[in-house]
Amino acid sequence: MRDIAQQHGIQLSDIGEYDTHFREIIAQLSTQRPIALLIDEYDKPIVDYLHDVRQAEANRDILKSFYSVLKNAEAHIHLLFITGVSKFSKEVSIFSDLNHLQDLSMDDDYATMLGFTEEEVRAYFTLRVQQLAHQQGLLEEVLWDKIRLHYNGYSWHGKNYVYNPFSLLSFLQSGVFNNYWFETGTPTFLVEYVRRQRAPEAIEGTVVNKGIFNKFDFEHLDIIAVMFQTGYLTIRKAEGSGMDAWLTLGYPNAEVRYSFEQHLLSHFAGQPLTAVNRQLYVLRKSLDALDPDAFVRHLKVFFASVPFDTSPSAERASAWEGFFHALTFLLLRVLGLDVQAEVASAKGRSNAVV
Predict the structure, then answer these.
(1) 197: which residues sit within 8 A by CB, 6+ positions away?
(2) 249: closest CA among 155, 328, 165?
């Protein structure tokens, strides 16, 4: 606040704290010109501490006091635009006093506002994709399919889909398929919540009521709502309308699915990613050689390397089964295989079909 005031030649009072200074800056700036107030990642001090409820609450209280200034400053503000990943329930919302805000998150008119549409990518980047296809010895449409698989897929109403700009631009610059967006931050708290609350194979294809996204409460987190609001799940299909709509969710693309499941596998196995990747390599080689005996042998070695304190209590047989079921499912998925869980047939129910 002091830096902004100094930049605009505003003298702040000696009394009060950040909220007082925020009010003074808005009032004095508005005498010079109309104010547009842009707030990005408003909830970052909360989302970064979802694993520590006490700290999240403390940060929330500070932000609530700070942003409460906006309610009485309406006359001075020409435009207020706020972005963030979470929409907290009204009881814990930072903006509970600002009941006139219009939420654009899932408004059809703004569904393609953030991210690149297929038409935009084709219009602006076709020449670069042609260059990369030539360098990599691929047909142009084959490369387009791979790009779409890795970086497209985000939707806020299940109709139009957009590319992740950061990942797409990073790929177009390097020509290498990497997990660019995911590498910007490891969602440790999400991985831990998934392990405690939900079987990994039950994430893809989850059906929820749209109202779930209005109940974001960091004291009673719903992992599916958190994953959607933080970009790890997206809307695949929407049925119904308004708050009665039912949404089918899934990973937006290969980048997110592979990266998230790889971190989950590391967490379930109780080993760093480098150690897990070494074992994935020998498992993959045995599959490439069509050697099922070697695959099973390496699988047993992998299970044997899981620390005992990572696994459920030996007294709970069902927990053990669920734990190793999840571990096997993640292992097969990260290997790039098409795997389905709990598949029924005339012979019974298979834990996994590959």
Answers:
(1) 223
(2) 155
